[in-house]
Amino acid sequence: MSLAQRVLLTWLFTLLFLIMLVLKLDEKANWNWFLIFIPIWIFDTILLVMLIVKMASRCKSGYDPRNGSQNLKKKVWYLVAMLLKLAFCLALCAKLEKFTDMKLTFVFLPLWALLIGAMVELGLNIFCDRRE
């Protein structure tokens, strides 16, 4: 998938999500919160499939593992980040639909873990590049 296609797909799913969110918040549509987040989950599924395919390509014969150990760590981090985002979205929807009586602190734990991990990843990328 080319960069232009990924940008267009990201823009399209974000626009669709925001339109559905505005309709729900303006009370024009009485939809379930899980329905509102469907564009986000479709987009995340596409990203997860692409990530898993790239990780599985390491299993091909003739792959040189010497160049890819750092790359694999980054792809594992991306997979963990996607799963944390999914956990946050599911917990948020369950809280908004009143399926559970969970405190907001517990709803936001996956998001906070994702943000802390992203800051650590950013710091490692900045300071490791300076040493080399």
Helix coverage percent of residues?
over 70%
Radius of gyration: 18 Å
Low-pLDDT runs: none
Terminal Cα span: 32 Å
Summarize the main sheet. Answer: none
Write down the overall mean pLDDT. Answer: 87
> What is the count of β-strands?
0
Query: What global shape is seen?
Result: globular
- Please trace the helix and strand order, writing H or E for each element: HHHHHH
Strand content: under 5%
Total of helices: 6
The computed structural class is mainly alpha
Describe this structure in words.
This protein is an all-alpha fold. The protein contains six helices and no strands. The longest helix is centred in the middle third of the chain and has 28 residues, at 69-96. The radius of gyration is 18 Å and the shape is globular.
